[in-house]
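Page 37, continued from 36.
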């Protein structure tokens, strides 16, 4: 066993984990040591030296967790849902070959790092990023714990998972809610939630933020408003959080059809990050969902005619739109929980961490949207609103942990399934 410092827990960090959380590893290395952590950073794939020979592809790329990550990266590269990828097409096959080569290159390096440092735990970001997926697969093979981190919708709160090593779709928020619901008085819950809602704009992560501009056009609308909260088209929460339907734009088309039948106004708020942001492999989004919408003749025509109001430029304040909405529909955006806490009925069309029939209405398929939207509106009451507020309070104050190095390193020291202490 090499480089073992007595009393220190050896933790292997995915290269960009701390950077994605907002920290620089050299700056926090000393703090890690003071918290009983001996940290190592695995070299990222782009810095690994490779020769001109093609790396043999092994069965490692077929491991379910790794295969999912490869699909995710090919989907991001090709800007398609995974089920639309076709290895018989040369462009798709070439893309798969590239990411499989990167997988094998990093696997070789990571195995050597594991064998050399023999870490007590692995820390990664999100879990579906290629390097994270490889590290957690190797951790499973070596009976080593893996802790995944990710930002919540608030910049001062972190989401985590130490059971699967994947924050996307983690069951821990729901389990925490079931354990903690009813432990606080309604007065305490509402006080906490009102404080959060009052500071939402200030504490919102930059990539989730929207301007203060209010959509005054909606003040003239007499129709009930259905607000669709979009997400980044190829985000892991979309790719791995859908039900059986293939494409998020299909969902918008389905919502549009329901609005036509009910004579409701549809407002589509696309994710702010798609307007100027980049994906995890550094490709600019360039309004990806908007480009997909433009490929739908019916949606493009409805937007052009003004039948659908689509905010692709991030012109309008999301919270102003929520306040004006009759009901909010989303695949599984975290903003859906915020909307419910703001006293707006919510319909969830995918696998959301807050899907709970005590306040959210699940649309198991796009065909059930009409029924789900009407059920959400007609069934909304003070009890459902309180349940949403209690869920938000438990999520932020009992499940999430503060976004600081102390929280991260305390969690690294335990790595045994206990919630990190505040």
């Amino acid at each position: 066993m090499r480089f073992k410092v007595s009393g220190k827990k050896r933790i292997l960090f995915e290269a960009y984990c701390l950077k994605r959380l907002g920290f620089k590893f050299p700056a926090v290395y000393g703090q890690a040591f003071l918290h009983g952590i001996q940290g190592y950073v695995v070299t990222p794939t782009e810095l690994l030296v490779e020769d001109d020979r093609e790396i043999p592809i092994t069965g490692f790329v077929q491991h379910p967790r790794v295969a999912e990550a490869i699909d995710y990266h090919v989907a991001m590269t090709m800007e398609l849902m995974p089920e639309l990828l076709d290895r018989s097409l040369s462009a798709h096959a070439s893309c798969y070959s590239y990411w499989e080569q990167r997988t094998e290159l990093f696997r070789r390096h990571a195995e050597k790092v594991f064998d050399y440092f023999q870490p007590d735990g692995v820390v990664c970001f999100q879990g579906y990023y290629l390097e994270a997926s490889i590290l957690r697969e190797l951790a499973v093979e070596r009976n080593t714990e893996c802790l995944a981190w990710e930002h919540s919708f608030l910049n001062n709160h972190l989401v985590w998972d130490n059971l699967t090593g994947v924050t996307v779709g983690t069951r821990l928020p729901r389990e925490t809610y079931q354990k903690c619901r009813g432990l606080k008085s309604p007065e305490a819950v509402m006080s906490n939630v009102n404080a959060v809602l009052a500071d939402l704009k200030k504490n919102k992560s930059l990539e989730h933020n929207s301007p203060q501009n209010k959509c005054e056009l909606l003040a003239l609308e007499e129709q009930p408003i259905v607000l669709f909260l979009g997400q980044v088209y190829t985000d892991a929460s979309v790719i791995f959080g859908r039900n059986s339907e293939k494409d998020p734009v299909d969902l918008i088309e389905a919502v549009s059809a329901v609005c036509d039948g009910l004579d409701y106004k549809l407002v589509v708020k696309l994710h702010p990050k798609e307007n100027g942001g980049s994906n995890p492999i550094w490709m600019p989004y360039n309004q990806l969902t908007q480009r997909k919408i433009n490929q739908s003749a019916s949606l493009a025509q409805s937007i052009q005619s003004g039948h659908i109001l689509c905010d692709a430029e991030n012109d309008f304040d999301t919270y102003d739109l929520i306040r004006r909405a009759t009901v909010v529909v989303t695949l599984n955006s975290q903003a859906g929980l915020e909307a419910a806490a703001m006293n707006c009925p919510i319909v969830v069309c995918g696998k959301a961490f807050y899907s709970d029939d005590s306040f959210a209405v699940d649309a198991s398929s796009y065909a059930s949207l009409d029924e789900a939207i009407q059920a959400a509106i007609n069934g909304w009451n003070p009890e459902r609103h309180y349940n949403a507020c209690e869920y938000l309070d438990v999520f932020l104050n009992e499940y999430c942990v503060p976004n600081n190095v102390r929280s991260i390193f305390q969690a690294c020291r335990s790595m045994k399934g206990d919630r990190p202490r505040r």
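Residues 358 and 405 are 35 Å apart (CA to CA). Flag for discussion at group meeting. The chain has 17 helices and twelve strands.
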